[in-house]
Amino acid sequence: MRALVISGGGSKGAFAGGVAQYLMEGLGYHYDLFLGTSTGSLLISHLALQKIEKIREVYTSVSQDSIFSNCPFVIQKKYGVDNIGINHWNVLKNFYRGSKTFGESHNLLQLIRNTLTKEEFVALKHGPKDIVVTVSNLSLNQVEYKSIKELNYDEFCEWIWISCNYTPFMSLVRKNGCEYADGGLGSMVPIEEAVKRGATHVDAIILHTEMTHFNRLPSRNAFSLLTSMFAFMLDRIEKQNIRIGKYVANHNDAIINFYFTPTVLTTNSLIFNKEKMTAWWESGYDYAMSKNLDQSEIEPD
Q1: Residue ranges with strand state E in 164-272
Q2: Rounded CA separation 18/101 (Å)
Q3: What secondary structure letter does DSSP report for 152?
Q4: Residue 102 to residue 170: CA distance in whole angstroms
Q5: Mean pLDDT, to the nearest integer, of 82-96?
């Protein structure tokens, strides 16, 4: 049983799309299980449908307006680097409405529904493949995995959306009496879950470099500090997920193939730029191709 696991990573998900495209089209891999966290959850349904060009067009065209119904920050460029600044009016407006977060991401939920049709959902639900998204249950302090096999259309779209809600910048969702947020807060790389579900071969796309290659610039404002803090915590979670995944795979005779980003794509994955994301998709495809060519050259006949 072969599984494709895609980690969280915001706009860097475009790189994962390129890697997955090569694995499926270039190498002809067929996956029984697709498991995604946050941005990874946005990709897996269409990858399972093999509608790669469709999701590529949608994914690389996403903007702040496509995601946020109330965007809490503005993008500022200084010394050629994009940074985020506080949109004080939008933040105050959100708090005035009684929200617990700085911004709201209801536009993303609508985009998910517009992109994944009910007919496509039915084809996946009754097909042989399993599609699973990761969410964090803040109320019960646990990670949950939501399979398409157990959900109806509206529920599945909502869980994908919840998996992507990078609180406190995006919506906090109350569902089934619990508060839910981004799956990456608990499991950035759900390799362990893939193995538990029976995977013997796992292709894991990690939207981070294997080694740390940069020092962050000093924080410019409260939002900049928050994103740096979250990036630090998520990096720790990711490394822990990978260690646990390797341990579980080793004890279940499962094979893991890792695909890390070879370079630092961005230091702020909340910024969505069509030109950059299109380039990242292409670089993901090229990287997966070169990695597999390099491996084939060193493998004995």
Answers
A1: 173-175, 178-182, 201-206, 255-260
A2: 32
A3: -
A4: 7
A5: 87
